[in-house]
Amino acid sequence: MKCPNCQSTKIRKHGFYREKQRYQCKDCARQFVENHTPHLPQQTSTGVEDRIDRYITSVSTPASDLLINLQQATVAYPLSQMQPPLAQVQLIAMLMQSMGASRVLELGIFSGYSTLAMALALPPQGQLISCGVAGKHLELARDYWQQAGVAAQINFQVGSGLELLDRLLAANPVSSFDLITISGLKHQYPLYYQRAIELLRPQGLLIATDVLWQGRVLNTDTYHDDFTRGIDLFNRELVADPRVHVSILPIGDGISIATKR
Fold first, then answer.
1. Cβ-proximal residues to 198 (8 Å cutoff; 6+ apart), any chain
2. Domains of the chain by residue range
3. Which CATH superfamily is domain 64-260 in?
4. Within a 13 Å sphere around the CA of 213, how many CA atoms are in the beta-carbon half?
5. CA distances from 252 to 20, 59, 83, 166 (A)
6. b vs e for 198-212, b when ≥16 Cβ sit within 10 Å of the residue's Cβ?
7. What is the pLDDT of residues 151-178, one digit of tens each?
8. CA distance to 41, 71, 84, 210, per residue, from 50 (Å)
9. What is the mean pLDDT of residues 75-85?
10. pLDDT digits 0-9 by tens, 221-258
């Protein structure tokens, strides 16, 4: 059995729904019954049909060939649906360029094509620190980073986002960042934020993806998994924090953009 959302085979039983066995994916926390059939036409978490997303892409500045090729090259990898949409990736890169970001921290990657997009948006002396898990997808990403001529600007560290944040905070002196992105383990978003805000310079940007979590944040009484609770708590803590000004856009699975005051 596979998860209908991310195709993972890491499934556990999760009670019953209308006398049918319910399951939950251990990777993305999606809940479903065994005879689940996807809704057609396919939609994003915000109810926007895929064809609308495709139209948006068609009337936006085209992504580089290397970026598109890396995205397509990882489609066959397990959990490839976790890749962020091009619209999100291009928005982050455009924001980087508009603010002249030269020090960027990326907490959590999947295929590395968001890393590539951000590295391409860096100035010549810019630096991107990123973290995630090792695997064949990372080997492929490194090849594309090399082809694009940005490999030297990417400091990739294997491990969790929390470990990386703690190392950065323990440094003497502590370095600040122009932009920090959060896209790692969803239940740890609040913990990422508590640390990341200390590393972000004034007027810097903090960007988090998947903040609508397929609409499950609208039904936290129904979805009791750690991922949904973590994202909902993160969203509420962020808007209540007087140190930042935040706005959420319904692009992909939701993207949160916060400016540190």
1. 169, 174
2. 64-260
3. Vaccinia Virus protein VP39 (3.40.50.150)
4. 30
5. 31, 16, 10, 30
6. ebbeeebbbbbbbbb
7. 999 999 999 999 999 999 999 999 999 9
8. 8, 17, 14, 17
9. 74
10. 888 899 999 999 999 999 999 999 999 998 889 999 99
